[in-house]
TrEMBL record:
Keywords: Biotin. GO terms for cellular component: acetyl-CoA carboxylase complex. One of its GO terms (molecular function) is acetyl-CoA carboxylase activity. The keyword Lipoprotein does not apply. Residues 38-53 have a biased composition (Low complexity). Residues 20-58 are annotated as: Disordered. GO terms for biological process: fatty acid biosynthetic process. Residues 58-134 form the Lipoyl-binding domain. The lineage of its organism: unclassified sequences, metagenomes, ecological metagenomes. It holds the Pfam family Biotin_lipoyl. InterPro entries: AcCoA_biotinCC (IPR001249), Biotin_Carboxyl_Carrier/Decarb (IPR050709), Biotin_lipoyl (IPR000089), Single_hybrid_motif (IPR011053). This is Biotin carboxyl carrier protein of acetyl-CoA carboxylase. It comes from marine metagenome.
Length: 137
């Protein structure tokens, strides 16, 4: 539709669409845009954003969601775990509060807590390391 006529309460309105503006003289040109990217002979692995390589007997526990990290079930309560504690599969390690919901984070394998990587009340991101465990065989 390029044109429309309306009559409303005894008044006539006419709207006309102008043709599109042509920016090129040659509409059928086969112009090619070439972008060149230099190729480097140095092939290196992309930088890793994860923590440094851990020994084989160490296991990292990652945050399954963004939120606020809590080591204990309440302000005046003892932490769920501390460094040196033996943990079994299914034990609660911490709580992550997300959208006003307290989510208990459980350990997925047996081990000993080697270090707690996050401070009480700190904001954590998805897939952020929270704990380092040594596996117990």
């Amino acid at each position: 539709v390029n044109e429309i006529d309306l009559t409303f309460w005894g008044r006539r309105f006419r709207v006309v669409k102008s043709p599109p503006e042509v920016l090129s003289d040659d509409l059928n040109s086969d112009s090619t845009v070439r972008m060149e990217t230099p190729i480097s002979s140095d092939v290196s692995e992309p930088p890793s954003e994860s923590s440094p390589k851990l020994p084989k007997d160490r296991i990292e526990v990652f945050s399954p969601m963004p939120g606020t990290f809590y080591r204990s079930p309440g302000p005046d309560k003892d932490p769920f775990v501390k460094e040196g504690d033996q943990v079994a599969k299914g034990d609660t390690l911490c709580i992550i509060e997300a959208m006003k919901i307290m989510n208990e984070i459980e350990v997925e394998s047996n081990g000993v807590i080697q270090s707690v990587l996050v401070k009480e009340g700190a904001a954590v991101e998805y897939d952020q390391p929270l704990f380092i465990l040594s596996s117990s065989s």
